Amino acid sequence: MPAPKTPPAPKTTQTRLAKLGLRSDMDLILHLPLRYEDETKIVPIREACLRGGHVSQVEGVVIKNEIALKPRRQLLVTIADDSGELLLRFMNFYGSQVKQLAEGVRVRARTEIKHGFFGAEMVHPTYKVVNENAPLPTSLTPVYPSGEGLSQPILRRAIAEAMRRVDWTDTVPPAIRRQMDLMDFQPAVKLLHYPPVDVDEYALMEKSHPAWTRMKFDELLAQQLSLKRAQRARRDKGAPHLRAMGQMTEGLLGALPFSLTGAQQRVLQEIRADLREGYPMQRLLQGDVGSGKTVVAALAAAQAIDSGYQAALMAPTEILAEQHFRKIAAWMEPLGVKVAWLTGSLKKKDKTAANEMVESGEARLVVGTHALIQDTVQFAKLGLVIVDEQHRFGVGQRLTLRNKGSEGLVPHQLMMSATPIPRTLAMTYYADLEVSVIDELPPGRSPIVTRAIDQNRRDEVIERVHAAALEGRQVYWVCPLIEESEALQLQTATETYETLAEALPDLQVGLVHGRMKPAEKQAVMDAFTAAEVHVLVATTVIEVGVDVPNASLMVIEHAERFGLSQLHQLRGRVGRGSAASVCLLLYQSPLGQVAKQRLLTMRETTDGFEIARRDLEIRGPGEFLGARQSGQAMLRFADLETDQWLVEHARDIAASLLESETGPNVEIVDAHLARWLGGREEFLKV
């Protein structure tokens, strides 16, 4: 059932509503209040003044109206009732307000009362001009999320009109409503827009009221239905059968200088089973920093190559892509596999040569950055797409690479992430993916000790760096900015590089940051890898993928400025060899509450899943996932911390509705998705 169209409104209002995503009547009635104001009672002015500090609504007649010019231009309006007088102060005002609040006019005003130098006053109250004995509202007044040019009265009017026109058919069947003890849709929505005076205000504001529970369940059910249906639709598409595991696979396994961990072997079996199927794999490979995802990806690529297809690996940064290229090419090229390298910074001649190798099929594996999705890149026979740090690519980018298959077949897709996804998030935002987890680190990895140190002890830290380098260990020193910012007053990478080079004249100090030319950057990284550079000063370009086993000390400057996920990724650059590793978090006092929580978490645990769980608590799911840029359906009403029980019910009910998606169930699913997603499903399918 398509969402009903809203009748034409004045162009400007309609355009402004559309900017908020409010295009249909159903969009409007699901635009629920942020909070409520109680305009159902009038408090006498004297009583309101005695209990100052609270929000009160008063009513009185204007007895004085003047524009004061000192200390700044402002409108002063005095109103009075039978109990006393009250000053209304407006710092910003229009000429029309001066006329509107003329002497003799009756005004209803509402805000907190403050006691200033001249007595009790309201500063910038919400107000309206009323007649004597004008009726009071019988329900709490909703306050809606708004946008430019959309006042609360305009929104309230648009929503009230939509509620008169909308189709109130309940899209959740009676049996499910009884099973979940849910309110019916229409009374739930009406209560949230117009709560009666005797409503449980605490439950309303905390979103634990049964009306909110109904909205949250409907939203979660729509998300689960959409993702699971997308998963089914994908299974109807054809994909290459990558059944062979022959010379390449065996040769690669034999050439590895280490054995796979049990966890690597388990996830590899899961991936291999998917690649044999005739529908596209859509699997997320999660593994903590240093757990060995790259070798699993290389073995998946080997299966594609053994089956006569090409594989592509796309990474978000040139440093990470080059790291993958060097490592995998070193494994595969001795086995006779041509590996192509594609990145935006390649010279035109090299890019053309790489494109020709890809198009002819000579290159069996292609590694690169966003350059892989350019129109000029044509694959001969693409069977597998591997996307590393998948959350750092937009949906459109992932989709473009997936569409480069041939013979009408969709390539299999393996996404990798070193940012573990907590279980509740996996059940909602990744309900359409199969998820594999490498939950074991390779043997011989040393534990990382993490300490937080005040910026005042910087000299001690430099001494420690010196001592570590003299013992033959290498050091990362990470800074958040490239050049001076007066606003943030942070130590910059270039300044820190100069300071350390001067303080440590007997050591080789290197510098790498995002604005350097790729060749310069790579030369410094190569020197660090070869142990010719003792201390590497860097911005977060080294966040992922850099692998130097001899580096065992990490200093993170202004650690309070980094997010938990980023701190964890950076720390993962050390602890890759057998030497005991240390991560020092330099911070600037005083610390805010969130920064304190982050640094405490880093000191307490090196478990990526526990860090991800706490990060979700601190930031919420939208920011945690980068969800807007990645196209995931943002949850507006459900809270994944408090509503986990609802997530599980919605998942099970969605599965049961789709299992028997024939007859009436098709209509139920279609109607529910039309109501809650209104055609915004396409990005959930990547």
TrEMBL record:
It is an enzyme of class 5 (isomerase). The keyword Coiled coil does not apply. It holds the Pfam family RecG_dom3_C. GO terms for biological process: DNA recombination; DNA repair. Keywords: ATP-binding, DNA damage, DNA recombination, DNA repair, DNA-binding, Helicase, Hydrolase, Isomerase, Nucleotide-binding. GO terms for molecular function: 3'-5' DNA helicase activity; ATP binding; DNA binding; hydrolase activity. InterPro entries: ATP-dep_DNA_helicase_RecG (IPR004609), DEAD/DEAH_box_helicase_dom (IPR011545), Helicase_ATP-bd (IPR014001), Helicase_C-like (IPR001650), NA-bd_OB-fold (IPR012340), P-loop_NTPase (IPR027417), RecG/Mfd (IPR047112), RecG_dom3_C (IPR045562). It catalyses: Couples ATP hydrolysis with the unwinding of duplex DNA by translocating in the 3'-5' direction; ATP + H2O = ADP + phosphate + H(+). Residues 471-617 form the Helicase C-terminal domain. Its EC number is 5.6.2.4. Residues 274-438 form the Helicase ATP-binding domain. Plays a critical role in recombination and DNA repair. Helps process Holliday junction intermediates to mature products by catalyzing branch migration. Has replication fork regression activity, unwinds stalled or blocked replication forks to make a HJ that can be resolved. Has a DNA unwinding activity characteristic of a DNA helicase with 3'-5' polarity. This is ATP-dependent DNA helicase RecG. It comes from Massilia litorea.
